[in-house]
Amino acid sequence: MNLTFWQERWQRNEIGFHQDTINPFLLAFWPRLGVAQDQRVLVPLCGKTQDMLWLAQQGHRVVGVEVSTIAVEAFFKENSLQAEVLQRSNFAHWSCGPYEIICGDFFALTKAQIGQIDAVYDRASLVALPPERRHEYAQQLKRLVTAEKKVLLITFVYPQHEMDGPPFSVTEQEVDALYADTWTVTLLHTEDILADKPRFRDKGVTKMEEKVYLFSAKSG
């Protein structure tokens, strides 16, 4: 799975992963992070998620990263935002008000290019990646975000053999293996969601849970 895969998904409008409403777990658990107004929140692999609107409404500055120009254009157009676009190195920076979306390869982004990040919201990034790329993704996130910053992560867990991802199943054990060396990883919530996800039932999935994690600075 590479950049072309996601660009082609957007070109064909195969975006079943996109949610037209604010994620309820974001609403319920974001306050646990204690992110102050005017701080910069990273939303990796952001697509055109409406969650960015809610984060901005809380007073945060939102920094999305997305490989598809179609997705970035759609976010600004569909929300009646007139973006300024600046090309910097291999990235196009789209900005308007509290929003900045960096269009390009997340894995090639440097800390200098993205600037100070105060918190991270990952709903559709880790689960979008196959197993062989998740370690690389976690390492890149650690390079971009210092260990004292907090992260809200949302994952799916289901029998992986029953459906090809994305979204992929990411177990609690894998989350710990990827991130516990840098952050204290706390499982906040687990919910059985299959009854509300007919598109997954139709693919033969027999069990699906959504899990919410908080990453916080290690004590001591």
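The above is record 1. Record 2 follows with the same two-line structure.
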Amino acid sequence: MSARYHAFISYSHVDERWAKWLQSALEGYRLPKRLARQKLEDGAGSDRLYPIFRDRDELASSADLSQSIRGALEQSRALIVVCSPAAARSKWVNEEVRLFQSLGRADRIYCLLVSGSPDRDDPDCAFPAALLHSATNEPLPDPLAADVNPNADGKRGAMLKIAAGLLNIGIDELKQRDAQKQLRRRGFVTAASVLIAVITLAFAVMAQLARDDAEVRRGQAEGLINFMLGDLRDRLAPLGQLDLLDSVGDEALQYFEAIGERGTEKEVYSRVMALRQIGEVRFRQGQYAEAEDTFRNSRNLAAHLHTSVPRNSEYLFELGQAEFWVGYAALEQADLEQAEASFRKYMEYSRRLLATDPENADYQLELSYAYSNLGTVSLQRLKAEAALDYFQKSASLNEKLVFDNPDDVGMRLDLGNGYSWIGAAQLQLGHIRESRNAYQRAVDILTQLDAENDSPLFSENRAQNAYHLGNVLLQQGHSEQAGSMFRLAGTLLDS
């Protein structure tokens, strides 16, 4: 079966953090070398689990959720159900299970038990009805679930169980090879842990010295921070060991709090960047509230720098970046009001930045992104007219950028995606003809990019917009043209 996704994750939004963790864990998992080589020799397909579908990431500009969900399920080799009492009560999780079963792939459904009981008779049962009874209400065998409880499989064991099923590998062999791989990694991780402990202690001592108003060797501290949050972070991230930096981040934050705004411009600027890096680590770990607090600290220091040296455009730029991250972290927590407030400030800073150098392409891009972010939030808040205005302003800037830089592939991609967002906003307003025109422009741009560049990025974007255009054509009654777009999308995704 040719499919775009290795798996579709179905979940209640109460369990969103588990769905995000599982998607990240599976997409980042690498088979131990011997098993990967064996799969390659056997011609058994991929040794990776990328991509995994999770609706919020994949349906950013979708106007027809049910059709998009159906398309994603049809394009998925397997279904993973994040099971909990909330999932058991969710109409949508149950419908997604039913739909996947109707495709004849009931044997490719995997369960991740995150809370509740596996007992079907328990009032706190975690399994949706579709996993317990057939469409004709006949009892089904009890589902087998990977259980994240530490007394059961544990988080990693549960992830490995599901990975083994998706890769068609025996779980015992996978666990054995994975344990060997973890032992080989442990040497590096142990050494890193010792180094982290030493540096954490150093931060604690320096923080105390700062509180006592002693002379602090800030230059050395900034050097340690840059190493910990730069080189070492880059080495730990592929190993899934960013949590080792948690203690360092906590101590660094205490140190920054103790030292406040003291130091040279260069030192304060370095702290602005370091705080943003700490925030990004927290963000990547899914700790959005902690990340937002850290981004706020970075923003406050950047605001101090900008106030002190208002003519320095670099400080204004960093202030805008910090405000963007505050908004992004808020958006991930579904705090649309805070996200909109921060994105408005980001827009204002971007406007002021562009006023210092109106022909600067990077500054024009920042303002374009600010408009687009505000449009995205407005669309989620069902403020389609405001969203359309923002998307049109963003597209206007992108059109100028593409005109001035016709060979810049990234700018052309931004313009194509900008028209896609306009199409989504027009459709929410009920402007079918205008929505069709916008999606058509997006398809035209992405078709040309796809022809010029050998990259799945362009073909996937082209396929998504062809699918959206097909939906609009279908609403207009142009079934033949709609079918042509749907077939194009399918062909692109299968290639």
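The chain has a mean pLDDT of 80.
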